[in-house]
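A reminder from the course coordinator: this example appears on the midterm review sheet, so study it carefully.

Given structure:
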């Protein structure tokens, strides 16, 4: 029997470095393609990804309807179902991204109530002060790493302040978060899966301690609000609160940091767009949307096929299969965007799929936009041009696309 052709390999470092040519080939020749390595069915075109977000035949979980034994038929078992990783599985049980109604509906409602526009806007002065301090320090030292020196501490400070994590604990939270999200790669190696499981255990232990402290002494923060909230007259248990806090801490900074680095790199590579932004401050918000479209921080979301009759782009996908909704590919689909590979901050319609869609649309989207607005706005005031210096390093892996290091010249 002939082995299926490997048209797309997310574990290939060259693909992870620049996946967009591979996306273009798949969109034209295999818009829905099953990877023989991971068993994931990758959906690549914008219209199909957009429609799939809202298709109830797909779900982020199957456990609300089936047992693993009766459901899994396509060899697509994700690593967190492996008995070797019980701590990660415990986190996943109440991870909001992995829940489906009715559990998802109830829990998300509580978190949405905490992410009010007023709450988000209260973070603006914190963000402005931190960015100003970091840029000033960069000018004084002659060295500025956008990823390490600005984006990471900015995003971490904002989400930790909202939740109630003390500054002394934030560096440890960052390290644990990086390890936990490694489990979501399409084909994580055993070493990465083991690190993710260990980090999930440490993260849960830390969060349990924080919960105990807030039960003793409530504060004006999101964690205290979750502990005081009720669903249908019942309070959340510690497992629900722990998973929710972990998700917010991870999702609340991973995407923002990556989006910031990707956006700065895009402006460095397209100086005429930077000049345009600096000449017209009203373009700041559309510029943010274009950076998110052009080089999204998250490349794909996974979904399960819950029904037998799921068909997309003329391809029948069986129940029990995992589907990869390819955000990075959809955002570059020429059927949706004129000249999609061109970075252009003035577009007739710069809407994108980088924050997902349907019931799982990203809760933190307004917070991420605020952070990018403050960062890009401050850089536009400070720097006539953005010059990336030698030493820029892309994050390893495919799923989360960004920079672990992005040094730029701190002065003109």
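Designed residues:
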């Amino acid at each position: 029997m002939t082995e299926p052709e490997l048209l797309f390999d997310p574990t290939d470092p060259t693909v992870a470095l620049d996946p967009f040519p591979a996306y273009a080939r798949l969109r034209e020749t295999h818009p829905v393609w099953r990877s023989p390595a991971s068993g994931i069915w990758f959906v690549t075109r914008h219209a199909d990804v957009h429609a799939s977000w809202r298709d109830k035949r797909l779900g982020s979980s199957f456990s609300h309807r089936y047992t693993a034994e009766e459901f899994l038929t396509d060899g697509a078992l994700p690593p967190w179902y492996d008995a070797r990783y019980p701590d990660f599985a415990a986190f996943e049980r109440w991870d909001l991204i992995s829940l489906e109604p009715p559990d998802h509906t109830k829990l998300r409602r509580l978190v949405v109530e905490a992410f009010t526009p007023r709450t988000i806007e209260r973070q603006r002065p914190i963000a402005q002060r931190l960015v100003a301090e970091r840029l000033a320090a960069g000018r004084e030292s002659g060295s500025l790493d956008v990823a390490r020196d600005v984006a990471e501490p900015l995003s971490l400070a904002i989400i930790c302040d909202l939740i109630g994590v003390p500054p002394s604990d934030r560096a440890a939270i960052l390290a644990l978060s990086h390890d936990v999200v490694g489990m979501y790669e399409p084909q994580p190696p055993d070493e990465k899966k083991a690190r993710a499981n260990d980090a999930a255990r440490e993260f849960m232990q830390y969060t349990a301690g924080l919960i105990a402290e807030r039960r003793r002494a409530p504060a004006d923060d999101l964690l205290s609000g979750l502990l005081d909230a009720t669903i249908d007259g019942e309070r959340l248990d510690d497992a629900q609160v722990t998973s929710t806090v972990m998700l917010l801490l991870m999702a609340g900074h991973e995407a923002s940091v990556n989006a910031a680095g990707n956006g700065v790199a895009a402006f460095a590579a397209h100086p005429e767009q930077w000049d345009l932004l600096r000449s017209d401050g009203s373009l700041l918000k559309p510029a943010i949307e274009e950076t998110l479209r052009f080089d999204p921080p998250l490349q794909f979301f996974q979904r399960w096929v819950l029904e037998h009759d799921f068909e997309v782009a003329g391809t029948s996908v069986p129940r029990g299969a995992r589907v990869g909704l390819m955000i990075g590919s959809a955002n570059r689909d020429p059927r949706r965007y004129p000249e999609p590979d061109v970075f252009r901050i003035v577009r007739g319609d710069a809407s994108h799929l980088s924050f997902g869609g349907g019931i799982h649309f990203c809760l933190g989207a307004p917070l991420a936009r605020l952070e990018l607005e403050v960062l890009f706005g401050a850089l536009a005031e400070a720097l006539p041009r953005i010059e990336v210096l030698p030493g820029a390093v892309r994050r390893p892996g495919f799923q989360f696309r960004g920079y672990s290091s992005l040094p730029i010249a701190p002065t003109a």
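The first helix runs from residue 13 to 17. Residues 152 and 295 are 18 Å apart (CA to CA).
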